[in-house]
């Protein structure tokens, strides 16, 4: 039997908010092994122009992401929910090895299985270079 990851669908506003907060908290650890536990073994992702499938590809992607996106800090906001789907808007900040800060904006569409694991994640993301004094997300 597959592991459960409450809250389970169908989502209410309260449970959708809990799911969004749990995702934000996990991603802010920058620990790919922890983050991947929220996804099905065969989870499908579209992240910008990349298409990933399964835990191995997700961990590889997240490891590389957080090696180049230093000081990463994320905020997610519930946008909509219904049944087993949640939509979020998000922003995160990070800097590169040269010290240039960026703010990334985007939207994600999530679909969950009956056990509360995310089986699909589709993300559209844009980056904006920002000066250190323009940062909005405290580390």
TrEMBL record:
It comes from Streptomyces thermolineatus. This is Nuclear transport factor 2 family protein. The lineage of its organism: Bacteria, Bacillati, Actinomycetota, Actinomycetes, Kitasatosporales.
């Amino acid at each position: 039997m597959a592991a459960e990851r409450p809250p389970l669908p169908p989502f209410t506003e309260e449970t959708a908010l809990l799911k969004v907060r749990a995702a934000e908290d996990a991603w802010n650890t920058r620990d790919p092994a922890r983050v991947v536990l929220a996804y099905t073994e065969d989870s499908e992702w579209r992240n910008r122009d990349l298409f990933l499938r399964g835990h191995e590809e997700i961990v590889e992607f997240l490891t590389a992401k957080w090696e180049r996106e230093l000081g990463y800090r994320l905020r997610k906001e519930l946008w909509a929910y219904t049944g087993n789907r949640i939509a979020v808007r998000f922003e995160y900040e990070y800097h590169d090895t040269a010290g240039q800060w960026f703010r990334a904006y985007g939207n994600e569409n999530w679909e969950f299985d009956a056990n509360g694991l995310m089986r699909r994640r589709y993300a559209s993301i844009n980056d904006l270079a920002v000066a250190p004094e323009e940062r909005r997300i405290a580390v």
